[in-house]
Amino acid sequence: MLASLLSLSRLFLALWAFYEVYQRKFSEAAVLIAVGALTDLLDGWVARSFGQQTRLGAHLDHLVDKFFVLTVLLGFYLTGTVDLLPLLLLAFREVSVSLLRFYGLAQPVNVWGKVKTSVEFLALFFLCLDPRLGNLLLWVAVGLAYLSAALYLKLPIRVGL
User: Fold this and answer.
1) Any domain includes 157
2) For labeling, which of 26, 88, 89, 152 is most exposed (least CB within 10 Å)?
């Protein structure tokens, strides 16, 4: 129950962070993004530690993560901090993988998906403080998004080519 409440709190935090970004209150947005990232870490820990792991909770966590990242990223796009392309690429990837997972055609979450989410939160945080670094991290997140998507689909990837 507590784990799900932590996940759901990110919905509110996402909307609040979007508002702060849109108002160009980047310091406030950075704090909200950091709190959102912290709740993402805590909800999984709470679920595992207190035996509250459920399929619904896992799905909720993933959907809320996607909502958080894309909502706040939209705010950065609307303020001219990021280009439309990375937002569209991430949105397309998230919708595609979610649909494939819904129909049972994608593998369970892998480490690259978790790394991607961490880099997305870092990118959002640094977009508030140093937009050049934030944009660089955002493109790293896009690359990780498609790497993890390929692994979810069991596509062969040759490293180093």
Assistant:
1) no
2) 88
